[in-house]
Specification:
Low-confidence stretches: 470-476
Strand content: 15-25%
Largest sheet: 10 strands, mixed
Oligomer: single chain
Radius of gyration: 23 Å
Shape: globular
Order of helices and strands: HHEHEHEEEHEEHEEEHEHHEHHHHHH
Helix content: 40-55%
Distance between the termini: 62 Å
Strand order of the largest sheet: 3-4-5-2-1-6-11-8-12-7
Length: 476
């Protein structure tokens, strides 16, 4: 028993080291690509592009369920985007609050019955009506029966008038040049780009007015602060690198732009389980590779979307369990069909195997490996040295990767003006390994349990007003 525990514990140690080594390679790809992006960005004239008639029109889809506290600011920010031709389509997914009423009252929208053509491209729950006001010619509100986020996106696609669609979460805000930046990348190769993701940043702590981030600040609360450094690592250290080798497996549902014709060809967004943002990207990869079509799925880090991060353990745990269920479902449904198959190139040989072995199965290897090391140290009291070395290597290696992502942030974007902000982010990059990462692994494992129990509830998610912090400051 002692030998088994030791061997398995050492296996778990090497497993973690291999994960971090692969991630280190991905960060190197991120550094390589970010140097090109910096040169392209420096010579780009985005103000000129905002008035250009050559910019492709885009339909922005906003699925909304119980979003009355944030939906007005979200729509205001989308209508104020510096973009020559875009429409905003809010899809109210059977909300139980005043989401529809807030928009109808704010923009004086009037009801009209949609035509069958606007409903039948992709199958969705019943659309009860569409609201519109000619004074806001690029704003539409679709009111439908509840069917989930994927169903709402499909309803928005059915109604959309343009060949490019962008998905935006209702609790997110776009910077006013975000659409220009992501469309500019699309125009580099419109025949091959089928999807481009934007960069998602944490808005907690920022000063927000009229649907715009006026001043960037780090969150004051623990959990949003930890998520800030987590997001920087995931998006700047991870997605830039994966996109450099055309192996990106997810475009965040908070902000992305897609070719509508290809979304329809792959059957639209899959409902029934969370993880629709990963599902649609895997299906796009698979369709293009099955048909031997040249394509690229990219990431645009300077196209920024700001989102609210959960600030309580209950809400964050619910979110991460949901993500765990979605990842497992996608790997069982699609990933196993592409695993190690030469036809699927980078996706089949690297992205899918990495996701299955080091993301989906990670909770099992990490939890059992740690327990094996603890068990060995209890049987042989000298074994605590092995556990200590393992933990030290894990923290040091993970911190190095986090610092690499912060270096990309400082070199290319510099969104945080105060030097003390970077010292704070370095501190939280280290603190992540003392409880937060372990909780994330446990939540993912619990999400898998929910999946096998067929528990597909969305879970707890509570919104707060974008202007809550500003109102507190004014009251003080």
């Amino acid at each position: 028993m002692r030998d088994f525990l030791l061997v398995y514990g050492i296996f778990a140690m090497y497993y973690v080291i291999v994960i971090n080594t692969i991630y280190f390679g991905i960060i190197m790809f991120s550094f390589r690509k970010i140097t090109r992006i910096m040169k392209e960005t420096f010579y780009s004239k985005y103000e000129f592009l905002s008035g250009s008639k050559h910019m492709p029109p885009i339909s922005i889809l906003v699925p909304a369920f119980n979003e009355e506290l944030t939906i007005k600011e979200n729509v205001q920010s989308l209508l104020a985007l510096h973009y020559p031709a875009h429409e905003v389509i809010v899809v109210n997914d059977g909300s139980g609050d005043n989401t529809s009423k807030v928009l109808i009252d704010e923009f004086r929208l009037n009801y009209y019955k949609p035509t069958p053509v606007e409903q039948n491209t992709l199958s969705t729950a019943e659309v009860k009506g569409v609201y519109y006001n000619p004074e806001f010619p690029n704003l539409y509100l679709i009111d439908k029966e509840n069917g989930g986020k994927a169903d709402s996106l499909n309803a928005g696609i059915n109604f959309s008038h343009y060949s490019l669609v962008s998905s935006i979460d209702a609790d997110s805000l776009l910077e006013n040049d975000a659409l220009i930046r992501i469309a500019r990348k699309y125009m580099e190769n419109p025949e091959e780009y089928v999807a481009i993701g934007g960069n998602v940043r944490i808005a907690n702590g920022c000063r927000i007015s009229n649907g715009m981030v006026q001043k960037v600040r780090l969150p004051k609360k623990l959990l949003p602060m930890l998520q800030t450094v987590e997001y920087i690592k995931a998006f700047l250290g991870g997605r830039i690198g994966w996109s450099d080798i055309n192996g990106l497996i997810i475009v965040s549902g908070a902000f992305g732009v897609f070719r509508k014709d290809y979304i329809i060809k792959v059957g639209g967004y899959r409902g029934g389980y969370p993880g629709e943002d990963m599902n649609i990207i895997i299906k796009l990869h698979r369709y293009m590779l099955d048909h031997n079509l040249p394509y690229q799925i990219d990431f645009c880090p300077d196209a920024v979307c700001w989102t609210q991060a959960p600030d309580t353990f209950k809400i964050l745990g619910s979110q991460r369990k949901r993500w765990g269920r979605g990842n497992l479902k996608n790997m069982l449904e699609l990933g196993t069909r592409m695993f190690m198959r030469p036809r699927y190139k980078v996706m089949g040989w690297l992205t899918i195997p990495y996701n299955i072995i080091f993301e989906t199965l990670s909770p099992y290897f990490r939890i059992t490996g740690f327990l094996a090391l603890v068990g060995y140290s209890l049987i042989d009291m000298t074994g605590w040295k092995i556990v200590a070395v393992f933990m030290l290597i894990n923290v040091l290696y993970g911190t190095l990767l986090g610092l690499g992502s912060l270096l990309i942030e400082e070199l290319a974007f510099r969104r945080f003006p105060r030097i003390r902000d970077y010292f704070k982010m370095v501190l939280y990059t280290i603190l992540m390994f003392f409880g937060y990462r372990q909780l994330g692994i446990l939540w993912r494992f619990m999400g898998h349990i929910q999946f096998f129990r067929k528990n597909n509830s969305w879970g707890t998610m509570t919104r707060t007003s974008w202007n809550e912090d500003e109102e507190k400051e004014e009251a003080a």
